[in-house]
Design a protein that fits this description.
With 359 residues, this protein is an all-alpha fold. It contains 16 helices and 1 strand.
């Protein structure tokens, strides 16, 4: 009797790959051509960025002119300007420590043990105070450094954090006011929200930085940096208010009615029943709004602030490094990517932990 050898079943992943990209001869040719183009582009990028690049700053710009790859030596030579901007050279350790403080605040906020209102408020309250003292000084023997000297990554983080800290509570207030049963309150709030959202952020920043002082008395004008942050927070709150309101509309009406039947006060219903579920529903859109706000900090360069993008412009702005602008912008893009990607991954972790989208 003849023995029949049965071939083992094909791997599930290989079978899926074949079905997706090699189902027909035409599809196989297109897939192989696409793969060849991708491999070629990746090789060219690696050759430019790594294999033929210049990393040592000791050779100066002349070494970069002689090479065919990227000139990363501009980063080694000008990294202080990129990270610290106009901040005094001998005090730049304070700016670096302030950035570390913001990162530490964010990491602590990601730990579930800190997920209570009081602990989060304590972490961000203490962290913000430490950041401000480190940057401005005037206490604990630290030299005074005015806001006009702040710059680089520390200024970008300061604008982002304060925008969110001011704008998020304001967004919740606007969302609650727009849900008011009194028509004149809800309609007025809606008009404010729609009015702010109809304006580009640049025009709001310019108005708060340049125009607003002409309409206010001297004692009420404040520093330009804080006026810009207030404008940015107002813009953030208008969008975030609609996100929060959408999350509230996703909470079944019966839950609020049940809370009312139990005799809970308005603020207890809002803080213990409605808002927790609304924030859970609105989590993906909220994370997206945080990401957008972080990237929009680069717009403050329009009104004269030396944030990280402006610092990058200054890093290659000198005559000897003017040719290396691509490398400087690529380095700044990587900084943005690290922060934004970390924020989005944390948002995905929260969605899995809270089972967002599951019923």
């Amino acid at each position: 009797m003849e023995m029949v050898v049965v071939a083992p079943p094909a791997s599930g992943k290989l079978e899926d790959l074949k079905r997706r990209f090699f189902a027909t001869p035409r599809q196989a040719v297109i897939s192989l051509l696409s793969l060849s183009v991708i491999v070629f582009l990746v090789w060219k990028l690696l050759n430019w960025a790594v294999f033929s690049a210049v990393f040592d700053a000791s050779g100066g710009p002349d070494a970069c002119h002689a090479a065919s790859g990227a000139c990363w030596s501009v980063i080694a030579a000008r990294w202080r300007i990129i990270f610290f901007g106009l901040y005094p050279y001998e005090e730049q350790w304070r700016s670096a420590l302030a950035c570390v403080t913001v990162v530490a605040m964010t990491v602590l906020s990601c730990i579930p043990a800190f997920w209570t209102g009081r602990r989060i408020a304590l972490v961000w309250g203490v962290g913000a105070a430490v950041f401000y003292v480190l940057m401005k000084g005037g206490l604990l023997g630290l030299g005074f450094v005015g806001e006009e000297m702040w710059g680089g990554l520390a200024l970008t983080l300061f604008i982002f954090v304060t925008t969110c800290l001011v704008g998020f509570p304001l967004a919740i207030c606007l969302a609650l006011l727009r849900r008011s049963e009194l028509p004149w309150i809800s309609r007025t709030t809606g008009l404010i929200i729609d009015g702010v959202r109809s304006l580009p952020l640049i025009s709001i920043l310019f108005t708060f930085a340049i125009v607003l002082p002409f309409a206010l008395p001297q004692w009420l004008q404040g520093d330009k940096l804080y006026r810009v942050i207030l404008g940015s927070a107002l813009f953030f709150s208008a969008y975030q208010a609609e996100i929060v309101r959408g999350g509230m509309q996703g909470v079944p009406r019966g839950q609020e009615e049940a809370a009312m039947a139990l005799g809970l006060s308005y603020w207890h219903r809002i803080s213990r029943i409605l808002l927790p579920q609304a924030m859970r529903n609105a989590l993906p859109a909220t994370i997206n709004q945080f990401v957008i706000s972080f990237k929009e900090t680069s717009l403050v360069i329009i009104v004269g602030f030396f944030e990280i993008l402006a610092s990058g412009n200054a890093a290659y702005g000198t005559g000897e490094w003017r040719f290396a602008y691509v490398e400087v912008y690529a380095f700044i893009a990587m900084i943005y990517f690290v922060f934004v990607f970390s924020l989005s991954r944390y948002g995905a972790f929260l969605e899995r932990r809270m089972s967002v989208g599951e019923r």
